[in-house]
């Protein structure tokens, strides 16, 4: 009668695959799978229903097309992660992990190239922002995007708040009949957390002295703020990449932990990169566990009819 070897437990009684890792990776991918569907729906709506071609022509790339591309790619990648983790499929998990690594390398490469060719990047950003200012009132989505950027970065205009004179509604020429003549958008205004937003707070700002203007609105342009933000995130991404380059798991986790502890306010791009690294780590752990489980099953199959096992 065959006996079970003490050093090799049967696959029916023991498994190397951790349910915690398996279902954590599944939930991780399922959440982003839902987000990818939302991005695709928004992209389809913006592209087919809105037809805001003229207003958005000032941007280098159509945001609707970008949403569709990002949404479809995210859908495919997270689908591989969902099914791969749930079905313990090595091929899908490897595809998921490789895709995350490629995306991370592309992000880091784009950041490094942007740092090296900062002058060209700065010129392109200036061109895009100036064109967006000209078309500010042409589309509500473009308007909301500019307002969000100015409030987020505490800035106004491209290089200075006077750039808003390039817009026909805010232009300071005497023959301008607009009620917003010589004004700036409300998103340029300095507001405290408990202050009710006054949409007319930027009225006639361009006609005031610079000292008085500084008490009411942010006078710094958005270009310097955006460039500084890119540079600061580039160094953080480089630190994470350094941690990724180390094959041991312990330094890798400590790099992420140190980043989260030291940063009181984690930027969205850094958080996204951290989630990417977490996905790669979980998928690698699960793949190793599945490989160990397959080796155990092969071992048991070879020795199942061995009278000396």
TrEMBL record:
The chain crosses the membrane at residues 20-44, 65-86, 92-117. The keyword Oxidoreductase does not apply. GO terms for biological process: pore complex assembly; protein localization to plasma membrane; protein maturation. It is found in: Cell junction, Adherens junction; Cell membrane; Cytoplasm. Disulfide bonds join 155-188, 156-172. GO terms for cellular component: adherens junction; cytoplasm; plasma membrane; pore complex. Keywords: Cell junction, Cell membrane, Cytoplasm, Disulfide bond, Glycoprotein, Membrane, Transmembrane, Transmembrane helix. One of its GO terms (molecular function) is enzyme binding. It is a multi-pass membrane protein. The keyword Glycoprotein applies. Belongs to the tetraspanin (TM4SF) family. This is Tetraspanin-33. The gene is TSPAN33.
């Amino acid at each position: 009668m065959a006996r079970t070897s003490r050093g090799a437990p049967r696959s029916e009684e023991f498994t190397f695959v951790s349910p915690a890792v398996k279902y954590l990776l599944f939930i991780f991918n399922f959440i982003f799978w839902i987000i990818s569907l939302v991005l695709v729906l928004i992209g389809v709506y913006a592209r087919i229903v809105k037809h805001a071609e003229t207003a958005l022509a000032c941007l280098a790339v159509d945001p609707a097309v970008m949403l569709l591309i990002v949404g479809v790619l995210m859908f495919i990648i997270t689908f591989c992660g969902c099914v791969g983790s749930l079905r313990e499929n090595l091929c899908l998990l490897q595809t998921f992990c490789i895709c995350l690594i490629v995306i991370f390398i592309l992000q880091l490469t784009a950041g490094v190239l942007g740092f090296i060719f900062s002058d060209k990047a700065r010129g392109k950003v200036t061109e895009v922002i100036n064109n967006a200012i000209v078309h500010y009132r042409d589309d509500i989505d473009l308007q909301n995007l500019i307002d969000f950027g100015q409030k987020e970065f505490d800035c106004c205009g491209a290089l200075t708040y006077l750039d808003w004179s390039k817009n026909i509604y805010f232009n300071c020429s005497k023959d301008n009949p607009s009620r917003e003549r010589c004004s700036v958008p409300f998103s340029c205004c300095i507001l405290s957390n408990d202050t009710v937003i006054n949409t007319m707070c930027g009225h006639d700002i361009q006609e005031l002295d610079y000292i008085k203007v500084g008490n009411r609105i942010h006078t710094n342009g958005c270009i310097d703020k955006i460039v500084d933000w890119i540079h600061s995130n580039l160094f953080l991404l480089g630190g994470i990449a350094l941690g990724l380059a180390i094959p041991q798991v312990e330094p890798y986790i400590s790099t992420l932990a140190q980043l989260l502890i030291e940063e009181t306010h984690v930027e969205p791009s850094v958080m996204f990169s951290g989630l990417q690294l977490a996905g790669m780590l979980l998928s690698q752990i699960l793949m190793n566990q599945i490989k160990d489980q397959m080796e155990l099953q092969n071992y048991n199959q070879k020795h199942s009819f061995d009278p000396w096992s």
